[in-house]
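Quick look at the format.
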Amino acid sequence: MHHHGKHRKNKVSYLESPERRKEFSPEQLLNRIPLKESDTILDFGAGTGYFSIPAAKKIKGNLYALDIDVSMLKIIKEKALKHQLTNIVSVEGSIEALPLPKNSIDIIIASLVLHEIQPLNPLLQQMKNLLKEEGYLICLELEPKGNSEKAPRITLEGMERELKDAGLKVTEKFFPAESFYMLVAQKSD
């Protein structure tokens, strides 16, 4: 168990690292998303609030920070207090734990989390159900280098296929940093 704590500490330091901010600041990325002030956002696998905090500042609606790790949510709560943000709702658990009806979210941000989920389709269907008509799923992932067996990764093409199979329309894709891609997918009938 002790070992796990060390891993988490490393994960937190990476999630918060200046290198990561330099590669792509959350603000930069949020500027590329069709955000409206009235939006409701779900940060899926919110981690330390890397996106939750800057995104919550941009909206008047609620931002739901969802993570299975309660210690991560504690970090988000502390940051929200520090930034005097009252629109962040922390939710512990998986997507089923969200107290939200269908068609209630404008934007879902899923950063560095979808590659861990197998099979992905059921989750993407749940995300699609949560999204309002014309809502967006923003997916950020690391492009696998060569054949890295040690960490599960999913290529941009693979992710694009998954999103299309789930009935989402990819409207934008780009690499904010060399090994890092962002896909914007929209729910539309």
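Next, a different chain entirely:
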Amino acid sequence: MDLKTITSKGTPYKKRNRLGRGTGSGNGKTSGRGHKGLGSRSGSSRRPGYEGGQMPIYRRIPKRGFTNARFRKDYTIINVGALGVFADGDTVDLAAVLAQGLVSKNTDQLKVLGNGELKVKLTIRAQKCSKSAQEKIAAAGGTVVELDSKGRECSGQASDTAPVEQPAQAPAEQATDANSEESDG
């Protein structure tokens, strides 16, 4: 054979396999479906997870406990030790952290954790901030502005993270405390 003798260009489609056309075809009689059973019937199909009557995997594995995976809130997390790259007085939010290349974006919400030391005064704008992180930011002279899930400031919570002083007791309460101590001792 050479290129001169080729007359047809061929076809892009494979010839259809005709079923049930005699035993010589290789797919005669039962048409490749085997004898009896569900698979031999018309309209038969197996549902996903069906294992031929064997106890399927989703029933063999024990189910226990609870998961809130559908409702979990995920955060892009950064430690205060990594915030030392910012200049004194900067405002740090998710966009600034991403611009510095400190983290890769997981979600639109930022959470600051307290691992490491902070020596610069920063204004942190984040959805969540751990207690130890707030203490370290306040010790460095900075502030934490808590944001809601959409990135807006929470009303009434955009304040300094300095600890709130306890109100002094009224004189009448102090007297009753002193009397109770005397009776105990």
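The two ends are 117 Å apart (CA to CA).

See the schema section for token definitions.
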